[in-house]
Amino acid sequence: MNTLQAWRSQLGEFLREHRRQYKGMQDIYDAWWRLPRDERWNVPKPPRPPPARYIDYDGAPWIIDDRLLALLDDLLGRLQKWLEEA
């Protein structure tokens, strides 16, 4: 349980830092998508921010996003419930 909580905390912080670092780039990309379709046709599509790529201790790449964090939250909740029932 403690290890899973530590992973969730560390990966959540990693994603927050990544989003802070690429906020300007994401804002420009989002603004382009909010343009009306006919205007988007005439405006070059800005580059999309890179995904939050995390390399673990063994060198395996992980893409950290909200879905992964939600999965970890769900696992923590289920494990906690199982431990309380035991």
What's the short story on this structure?
This protein is mainly alpha-helical and 86 residues long. It has four helices and two strands. The chain has one domain (2-85).
- How much is the radius of gyration in Å? 18 Å
Q: Which ranges are low-confidence, i.e. pLDDT below 50, for 5 or more consecutive residues? A: none
Strand line-up across the major sheet: 1-2
Distance between the termini: 14 Å
Largest beta-sheet characterization: 2 strands, antiparallel
As a percent range, the share of helical residues equals 55-70%
User: Which structural class do the helices and strands define?
Assistant: mainly alpha
Number of domains: 1
Q: What is the global morphology? A: elongated
Overall pLDDT, averaged? 96
Query: Helical stretch count?
Result: 4
Beta-strand portion reads 5-15%
- Give the topology string: H per helix, E per strand: HHHEEH
Beta-strand segment tally = 2
Task: Give your account of this protein's structure.
- The chain is mainly alpha-helical.
- It has one domain (2-85).
- The protein is built from four helices and two strands.
- It has helices spanning 2-21, 23-34, 37-40, 66-85, and strands at 52-55, 61-64.
- Strands 1-2 form a two-stranded antiparallel ribbon.
- A hairpin with a 5-residue loop joins strand 1 and strand 2.
- It is elongated and about 60 Å long.
Please describe the structure with a list of short key phrases separated by commas or semicolons.
86 residues; mainly alpha; two-stranded antiparallel sheet; 4 helices; 65% helix; 9% strand; elongated
